[in-house]
Amino acid sequence: MEVLEEEEEVEQKAEDVNSLNISDDLEDDETDVPVAEDSVPSDVFDFDWSSIDTAHLPSSYKTNSRKEKELLHLADHFHQQYTHLCPDRKPLFLHPVNECGVEKFVSTTVRPTLLPYPELYYWSGCASFVANYLTMEPLKCPLKPPSSLYSPTTILKYQRGNSFDFTVLLCSLLIGAGYDAYCVHGYATLEMCSLDQTQELCPLLRKPPEVPEEVDPNKYRIRFPSEPPSKFELQQEAKEKEEIEPVQKEEGEKEVEVDKPKRDPLHGLRVHAWVLVLSGKRKVPETFFINAFTGNSHSTTDEGFLGIESIWNHRNYWVNMQDCRKGCKDLSFDLNDSICWEIMLSESNKLSELPELHKRDMDDMVSDPNDGSRAVGTLYGPSSMCLTPLLPTAEFENPYAQGKKVILYEKAKLEKWAPYANGNGLVERLTVYADLDRSEEVEVKKWFKNREDLLDMREVNKQTQLTTDYFRPGHPLLLKAHTYTSLEPETGHIVEFYHKARLDDLWKRFENATEMTEYFVGRDDFLHIRHTEFGEREKKMQMAGTRTDANPRPIVQIKECFHRNPEKPADEDIEERIFMVIDDIIQLTYHLEVHDTIASKVAFSRVIGRERKADEIFLTREWCVKYQPWSSEKHKNILRLYNLLCELREELKQLKQQVRDAEAEV
């Protein structure tokens, strides 16, 4: 692939040529290659792989059987032919040494395994587990594949590895789960090779794609002419645009210069490994890549992947013979095409066709400690230990090597913990910043698990100090969300409920020192809003620690709004009723008929201590009623109004108690 020998641009500047010359020198001496340590955790450089214990490993790890030696001989012969026909290509990654210092063909390192956890039956769960469970280590030389490739057994035990280790483990899990997955040896960008996501937007902050609005298919619909534009206004807008445009252009150029990443002198030469998943099996609709470092899926046209040298699985090995000048976007992944892909083992020598192989469909393969889960290992030596005993449930539920994982994104930081690692149930925290240096916090989101109060997420706006708590179903008060600035009472609380589970169908409640508004959904009486106004408390001496309900706020007014009840006539269906508690006034407003323009209104008021007005009618010694002249005849019936007043006075008592209960609930 010519992309491995030259830069993508045809016309190169002098500095680009110098950088390529430098990269050639780096290729000859691995110790002089700089590693981007800023994007790699500092602890990964402290681990000594030469000190690992290999005594517990099976004998198949330490020696090669006769058939394994034959396979290595085939690989050497294939490599000789390859270097003869393609002298300009880089050496293939065929048989690196394992942790015991023994050369092993790369396909024998892939061990299809289905672990007994439901999450690992899907590619997303497998990818997320590998990305979280392992600690990333950079390649010693970014221009060459590693000289060794350890088994997934050792990688799982020590929970660390490079991109090739990540890829082999992930590919083993995916094949065990029934996917048509392959390990890829290729080239990628600096950010992808070094696990640098500081230029990317955090996935939790990505907005869902907008659904386009449906266009009215009626082409015969009448279109009214729009108002003609003013020529003077257009001229003024053009002048303002001419004045602002140069300033905006300069500011934009400055921002681009600041945000533009530095050019990588090794662009197109950095070695990386990832996973290829072909369409077909497990109903995968389209071929895609998985970056094992992050666990994210990518399209095969992603510009982060710059070229492919070879791919392999547990059965065979393929060499890419296609041009990668334009990255991977034009590559064909039809492995049966001998022009695009050079296969190593012919159909007669294909690993799955050898007689020693267990006749089992890999789509349904499940690892068993008594079976050889290493597909090629069963062919070329004794079956090695299974991955399942190496991952007990306790370790699977604690997927982070150091108990915590930190990921830096553009203007954001994501922290993850294992369940029960924190006493408050915190498992994930996302901090959003205002600047690229991540110095000024804008918003913090926290996710919780296994809490007694069923708190699921908490959002905190650092600028307004507004906090919103979200709860899972099952809370004793049926809480869904709670927004506040302080947990002190009467300081402004917005509470949302799972209204379908409440007897009163309450959906939302807003409460502060002077008012409380409640919203209802789906009530049989068609009530949808209740608004209560409070007065100031009487100033009394209160003992320290006494509750506010010991001196309740006086209720000034209660207002209720109702939706239209189609089973009632409009002049009997109340739309709004207001109880002025202190003034002893009850006002009723009825719904409108289709042909009406003014609603009927009735007002009840107490007359003790004042004179009766001319348009008021006595119902009792204490209460009188007033209705509008255009009101319905039903509203002028004195007996009906008297019965209605009695009902309203009784409902007012119940309403007061409901308001006090709502205060106590808040």
UniProtKB/TrEMBL annotation:
GO terms for cellular component: motile cilium. Residues 1-10 have a biased composition (Acidic residues). Residues 402-666 form the Dynein regulatory complex subunit 7 MORN domain. Residues 271-344 form the CEP76/DRC7 peptidase-like domain. It is found in: Cytoplasm, Cytoskeleton, Flagellum axoneme. Pfam families: CEPT76_peptidase, MORN_DRC7. Residues 234-260 have a biased composition (Basic and acidic residues). Residues 1-34, 226-260 are annotated as: Disordered. InterPro entries: CEPT76/DRC7_peptidase-like_dom, DRC7/lobo, MORN_DRC7, Papain-like_cys_pep_sf. Keywords: Cell projection, Cilium, Coiled coil, Cytoplasm, Cytoskeleton, Differentiation, Flagellum, Spermatogenesis. GO terms for biological process: cell differentiation; flagellated sperm motility; spermatogenesis. Belongs to the DRC7 family. This is Dynein regulatory complex subunit 7. It comes from Menura novaehollandiae (superb lyrebird). The gene is Drc7.
